Amino acid sequence: MTATGPAGQHTVRRHNCALVLAAVANEPGVSRAGVATRTGLTKATVSSLVDRLVLASLIREEGRQHRSGPGRRGTSLSLSPDGPHGLGVEIAVDHVTTCLVGLTGGTRHAHVRRADNRDGPARTLERVAGEVADALRRAEHDGIPVGGVGVAVPGLVEASGGRVHRAPNLGWHDVDLAEELACRVPVAPGELVVGNEANLAALAELAALRQAGGEIPESFVHVSGEVGIGAGLVLGGELFDGTRGFGGELGHFPVRPRGPRCSCGSRGCLERLAGQDAILDRAGARDVDALLALLDAADRTATSAVRSAGRLLGTALSSAVNLLDVPTVVLGGTYARLHPWLADPLTDELGTRVLSARWHPVEVRASVLGADAAVRGAATTALRTILTDPESFISPGRPPPHADSRTTSSVGSRIDGGSGVSPAS
Asked: Region Disordered: start and end of each range (predicted)?
């Protein structure tokens, strides 16, 4: 058994700083005294750490608290909207999207570049690198500190290292995205995390639902409907992405065994029959905006195409619901826009196929974030190191204990140049 020595002063401060920031993040408006009570730290220690976090623009003071009764009113503390932002990047089949998301969830500089990203990883990553560089320049021009970069990819991402093993709709096989992007964007600040777009979308949706308040489903399937179809599974308020991070490939559920050949090599996969391209083709629409116009006009062909997709989606999802007893289905991506026409056939199919539906009908709702969920999830995930280890942002030259030059996490990996712990799930 190896003996360990006492924690050094810097290690203790690192730990306490994280405690203080977490207390403020979990209860916006809390006072210094409130933080001391919640963390068990002395008031003097809390005051010193709060001053440090305020100076780093991680939290801000917002005036005196409102309280009834006697006693001195404390100063309200909350996360700073002017602090570090995460840069989110979504690599989809037909676009690259970037945006900046702050600690309080505010979004800035959202940008979409339309492109066919099926022309090979090298060309696509050059495109992505250009978008990242442009976003970093815009952030620097506006004085916005970037604390991390998150990339959402529609494919199998190795949980322990961030390698994209396979992205069928992009035609990618074994692409070390973090390494490749680091070669193209040499100054990538902070952490670079790589994750499956459906999983990151589900995390963003959960955060948005909690922020909005009201009744929040703690367990749901978030379905990202684009050219491909991915699913992020949230169970008990936590993302479940499988033992290796490969879960959620709803688009490759077989719904018609002798159906058309899929990019994955199989036949009759859900996304070949109910994905965005399949719906547009059946509806005779050039894009989603044209499809919505046809649906608004009650065009029979377009309506039939969407209803057929809803039934097929219900067939696939019923298996997941029967297996996992998930009470809610959240439609994201293009499906969120099609919710008014998808919901009824999807609900009917679930009602027929889910054994418990007679007593507990499955709720089908539209995503509150829609097509923005994946890129927002990527951006906020890139900030998790700062939230769990603020010293990594305050003192970037000093690595955390036992850190090596490349730290991996449950959603991806990190480029050299910043320090921190793995993001929380």
From this structure: 62-82, 389-425
State yes or no: pLDDT of 62 exceeds 90.
Answer: no
Task: Return the SS3 of 40.
Answer: coil
Q: What is the mean pLDDT of residues 270-283?
A: 96
User: What stretches of 228-299 show up as alpha helix (H) in DSSP?
Assistant: 270-274, 276-283, 288-296
Provide the total of helices (H) and of strands (E) in the chain, helices listed first: 15, 17
Q: State the first-to-last Cα distance of the chain, in angstroms, to the nearest integer.
A: 31
Whole-model pTM: value is: 0.87
Between 300-324 and 339-353, two packed helices, what is the crossing angle to 10 degrees? Answer: 40
Dmax (CA) of the chain: 75
Domains of the chain: 9-79 (1.10.10.10), 85-200+373-413 (3.30.420.40), 213-368 (3.30.420.40)
Q: What is the spatial distance between Cα 168 and Cα 166, in angstroms, rounded to a whole number?
A: 6
Name the region of 46 (left: φ>0; alpha: ψ -120 to 50; beta: rest): alpha
Structure tokens at 62: 């917002």
In the structure, what pLDDT confidence band is assigned to residue 399 with cuts at 50, 70 and 90? very low
Residue 162: exposure state from Cβ atoms within 10 A (0-12, 13-18, ≥19): buried
pLDDT(344) > 80: yes
Rounded Cα distance between 149 and 152, Å, is: 10
Mean pLDDT of 351-356: 97
pLDDT confidence bin for 66, thresholds 50/70/90: low
User: What pLDDT score was predicted for residue 410?
Assistant: 40
Structure tokens at 38: 């919640």
Find where tokens 């979990």 sit: 26
Annotate 342-359 with b (16+ C-beta within 10 A) or e (fewer).
bbebbbebbeebbeebee
